Amino acid sequence: MEANRKTKALLFLFSVSLICLSLSTCHVSAYAYGRRQLRFNNDGRFKILQVSDMHYGLGKESQCADVAPAEVPYCSDLNTTAFLRRTIASEKPDLIVFSGDNVYGLCETSDVAKSMDAAFAPAIESGIPWVAILGNHDQESDMTRETLMKYIVKLPNSLSQVNPPDAWRYQIDGFGNYNLQIEGPFGSPLFFKSLLNLYLLDGGSYTDLGGFIYKYDWVKTSQQNWYEHTSKWLEMEYKRWPFPQNTTAPGLVYLHIPMPEFENFNKPTEMTGVRQEQTCSPPINSGFFTKLVERGEVKGVFSGHDHVNDFCGTLHGINLCYAGGAGYHGYGKVGWARRVRVVEAQLETDQYGRWGAVDTMKTWKRLDDKNHSLIDTQLLWSKNTTLGMNIGFRCPMIPQH
Q1: N or C: which end of the chain has fewer CB within 10 A?
Q2: What is the pLDDT of residues 105-135, one digit of tens each?
Q3: What letter would DSSP give residue 63?
Q4: How many C-beta neighbours within 10 Å does residue 98 have?
C-alpha cells in the first residue's frame, strides 16, 4: 500500500512537471517567492473589497470631516478603522484592494509609516490577502512614492508590488504597477489558468503641466505598453494547452485618479449610484481607455479620488465605477454615509459539473450606517451577454452622374 501511495505521488508530480514544461516557461506570478496564490474558492466565487480614500492621519487625534455636529466630538480616524473591520467581517472578501489616498500626510505627520500601519491594520489583522496602490496624497509626508511602495510590499499579507519584474523593459513610469492573476479553484480543470486578471496602476499624483486648473497626472505610454504586453501574454496562456479556452479571461483595472471618460456620465439614467461632484481627471487624455477598448478584456475600471461620487456607468462595453470615500478624515458629505465597493465574480460549471470560466460579475456597495446597508447591486458583466448588430442602419442612395 505504501509503495502504491509513493508511486501515485510521483506520477502526480511528473504530470505537474509536464504541464509546466508545456507552458514553455512557468510564469512567475505576483505571489512567487513564498506569497500565496490567489484562486477562486470552492463555491466558484472570488470577492474583492475596494477601499478608497481613507486619508488616514494620526488615529484618534485626527478629526472627522463633513459629519453631523453631534458626531464631531467623538469622530476620528478610528471610525474608519471600525468601518473597515465591520465590513471585512461582514463581506469576508478574498482580496482587499486599497485604491489610493490611503494616508493623508500633508502638514500632519512626519512618520507616514505609522499612519500606514494603522490604516492597513484591519486588513493585516484579518489574514486576508490585500494590495494597495497610491493616490495623489500618499507621498505628502516623509516618504517618496517609491519608498511608500517598498514599505507596503513588506507588510504582512500584502501582495502588492513596487513594479512588475519586467518593468525595465518598458522604462515604466510610477511605482505600484502590477498584475494579479486569480486562478481556478482546486479540482477545476482550469486550476493552472488565470480566470480573472487584475491590473493595478500608479496613476501618479500631480503634473507640472501649465495652463490647467486641475493638474492631476495620467497613465503614461510606458504603463500602457506594459499593460498591453501583459494582457496579450495572459490571453495566449489562457488559449493554450491544457484545456485551451476560445475567449479571453475578463480583466479589471484599479486606478486612483479617474480617467477623463468618467466625465461622460451626468444623468441618473446613465448610471447606477450618484454623482455629487465633478470628475477631477487629468487635463490630458493619454488614450488608456482606447487601449482597453481595443484589447476587449477589461470589463471594469474602478477609481477613487472623488469621494462623494459612487456611480457605475458603461461606456463601449467597459464599466467605469467609483468606490466612494471610505475615510472619515477626508472630505465627505453630511448625512451621506462613508462607503466601500465590492465586486464578486462567479464561475460557470461545465457539463460534468466542474468549475469553468467566469460566468458573471456583479457589484454593490456597503455603507457605514446603522444597518450597514448593502445598496445598488448590479450586474457588471455576463459571459452570455453580447452586443447586437445595428441592423437598422441604412446608407443613403448616392446619386449617379
Answers
A1: C
A2: 766 667 899 999 999 999 999 999 999 999 9
A3: B
A4: 31
Cell numbers placing 45? 466565487
Length of the chain: 401
Of the chain, the end-to-end C-alpha distance in Å amounts to 91
Instruction: Give the closest residue to 237 by CA, choosing from 1, 18, 19.
Output: 19
What does the buried/exposed string (b/e) look like for 8-40 if buried means 16 or more CB atoms within 10 Å of the residue's CB?
A: eeeeeeeeeeeeeeebeeeeebbbeeeeeebbb
Q: CA–CA distance from 104 to each of 114, 128, 137 (Å)?
A: 12, 24, 6
221-233: per-residue pLDDT in tens?
999 999 999 999 9
Share of the chain above pLDDT 90, in %: 75
Residue with cell 500565496: 36
Cα–Cα–Cα angle for 22, 23, 29, rounded to 5 degrees:
145
- Is the pLDDT at 30 greater than 60, yes or no? no
What is the C-alpha to C-alpha distance for residues 36 and 33, in angstroms, rounded to an integer?
9
Per-domain boundaries in the chain: 31-382
Q: What superfamily would CATH give domain 31-382? A: Metallo-dependent phosphatases (3.60.21.10)
Q: What is the amino acid identity at position 70?
A: A
As given in the structure block, the three cell numbers for residue 183 are 486562478
What's the rounded Cα separation, in Å, for the pair 1 and 7?
Answer: 10
